[in-house]
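Our platform keeps sequence and structure together, in a single record for each protein. Such a record has a labelled line for the sequence and another for the backbone structure tokens. This encoding replaces a full spatial description with a residue-level series of whole-number codes. Below, we set out a record of this kind in full and without editing:
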Amino acid sequence: VFENQGKIGQWLLQKHGAFSIDREGTDMEAMKTAQNILQEKKYPLVIFPEGEVYH
């Protein structure tokens, strides 16, 4: 997701808690990250089901 955002865009997205998911298989790291977000309740988990970030 972050590839087309440029260096500043990548930094900004990650700074705000965004993370990528490997859609080619089972991404256990992303699943653990999502689980931690839900358990800690610091901020909401938002999912973009289309798989892309559109502006």
About this structure: The chain has a mean pLDDT of 80.
